[in-house]
Write a structure and sequence with these properties.
By secondary structure, the chain is an all-alpha fold. Helix content is 73%, strand content 2%. The protein has a domain of 211 residues. The protein is built from 20 helices and 4 strands. A two-stranded antiparallel sheet has the order 1-2. It has a two-stranded antiparallel ribbon with strand order 3-4. Helix 3 runs parallel beside helix 5. The radius of gyration is 22 Å and the shape is globular.
């Protein structure tokens, strides 16, 4: 057998989680063809089983050190493991949320679960992608499954419009990104991320490198909804089923951050013997750091100020997710181990607090028949547990102690302060935190301080929603009090 082919076959042993997800997709398709009518419970169980088995496969094959798979297309390292776990948890929770969501169609539930599993598969590959080709193909699979899920509500004008905008922006961003990648390939004659970094040392047109890098950043910026590539985000969240909006706010955003980190820390920087990084492109050593820092500042500022004027909880959380993309980009821009670890930690806790906020929206949707903030008036008296849970999730998103959101922002600020030339970014982030607290507190005030409408009775949510709220509340509070286990994990996974 050809040695390269033999090595690729051997590498399949580290590709088991992705193969498990692919098998789960096929099982769901066959099961849907065999049964005569939809069985959402059975379909969801098959999807959940596939995700859980993939997580087992991930944990059963933890890498002692970085290995390259399939001729350098994928990397098998702890950085990839962390993002696979984030992707799996996001999809797992969103499948559970979909079981009782009033805006998920039961007659096409199998196709819905297939797309969620497909997105999980794409996010797994993005987490490990170490080659521009594998990065782009996985990126496209995430995009396609995302706008198919956004258009899940057939016949709904808002859903169709949101999906159309998603497709248009997706196509444009993909074209821009692959053109940027082609420039980098032309300059270095390589698609491997680390080979590109060495190929750029001391050679190539600085203008071509800058254009290539900025075009790739534009494509990735679309996926993470950073400014100025965020326009699709609020409409997509508003038109999509709420569990899909929850998934889009966490899963693809984390996958985009993984892709951005791999690209910047491997293709655009050299690893030093001291363990740090040094930028190798553009006119100055820190130029792209400044570009990312400016994007981070603009993203959090626009997201927070736009959220102030929203009357829909889904749109408020959409703009909130844009702002949080800005906070997370702070860690990416630092070009340091501390910055990467802070970014990973914040993504880990953001998963729980943001999905928790969306879970409250889903749990109440069938009871108050609205996602307007005004419909949350008096919820503190009508459903105390749900209102308290929502308040905790919102305070965590604002970064108030003793929640995990506070610890996450503390590490991000620490990482920025270590880089003295970017101290202005910490000041901008601090001011934005005050703005964010204003619109989160507005929701809390409506729930606890404003009286409920006359004749409004108590609200009871399902046992499954109550259980999921507890599951998401525990880490949101626990990691705000004792966060060392999660910090140790992200420190081990903090270098691609």
């Amino acid at each position: 057998m050809d040695p390269i082919l033999a090595q690729n076959v051997a590498d399949l042993a580290h590709f088991v989680p992705e193969l498990v997800l692919l098998g789960a997709i096929l099982v769901v398709i066959v099961a849907d063809l065999v049964v005569s009518r939809p069985h959402p419970g059975v379909t969801a169980t098959l999807g959940i089983a596939g995700v859980v088995l993939s997580v087992v496969a991930v944990l059963a094959d933890l890498p002692a050190e970085r290995e390259m798979l399939f001729s350098g297309m994928l990397a098998h390292d702890m950085f990839a493991v962390f993002f696979k776990l984030i992707a799996a948890l996001a999809v797992l929770f969103c499948i559970l949320l979909s079981l009782r969501a009033p805006d998920v169609r039961r007659e096409s539930f199998a196709e819905y679960i297939e797309m969620m599993l497909g997105m999980a598969l794409a996010m797994y590959v993005i987490a490990a992608a170490a080659n521009l080709l594998s990065m782009f193909l996985a990126f496209e699979l995430v995009s396609m499954t995302s706008y198919i899920l956004t258009a899940h509500l057939k016949g709904n004008k808002a859903s169709s419009e949101a999906a159309l905008k998603y497709v248009i922006y997706s196509g444009a961003s993909s074209g821009v990104m692959i053109y940027g990648m082609s420039l980098l390939y032309g300059l270095t004659d390589s698609l491997g991320a680390r080979e590109i970094a060495w190929g750029l040392v001391g050679g190539g047109s600085q203008l071509a490198v800058a254009v290539g890098m900025l075009f790739v950043l534009a494509g990735i910026g679309y996926k993470i909804a950073s400014v100025p590539f965020h326009f699709w985000c609020p409409d997509a969240y508003q038109g999509a089923p709420t569990p899909v909006a929850a998934l889009l706010s966490v899963g693809p955003k984390a996958a985009g951050m993984a892709l951005l980190s791999r690209f910047l820390y491997e293709a655009m920087a050299l690893r030093l013997s001291t363990g740090g990084w040094r930028a190798v492109t553009l006119a100055g050593a820190a130029d792209w750091q400044v570009v990312i820092a400016i994007i981070a500042a603009a993203t959090m500022t626009l997201g927070n100020f736009a959220a102030i004027w929203q009357n829909s909880m889904k749109r408020l959380l959409a703009y909130s997710s844009i702002a949080h993309a800005g906070y997370i980009l702070m860690g990416v821009a630092m070009l340091s181990q501390m910055g990467l670890s802070a970014m990973l930690f914040y993504l880990g806790v953001y998963l729980f607090m943001n999905l928790g906020a969306f879970l409250v929206v889903i749990a109440l949707a069938g009871k108050i028949h609205s996602d307007d903030i005004d419909a949350y008036v008096g919820l503190g008296g009508r459903t105390p547990f749900v209102a308290v849970a929502m308040a905790i999730f919102l305070l965590a998103l604002a970064g108030i102690p003793p929640t995990a959101g506070f610890v996450g922002k503390f590490y991000l600020f620490w990482a920025v302060i270590e880089q003295s030339h970017l101290i202005w970014l910490a000041v901008v982030a601090a001011l934005n935190t005050v703005v964010a607290l204003y619109y989160y507190a507005r929701v809390i005030r409506r729930m606890f301080l404003d009286p409920a409408p006359e004749g409004a009775g108590p609200i009871a949510i399902s046992g499954m929603h109550t259980t999921l709220l507890v599951v998401l509340l525990v880490p949101t509070l626990a990691f705000g009090i004792y966060w060392w286990p999660l910090w140790r994990l992200v420190s081990a996974a903090g270098a691609p």
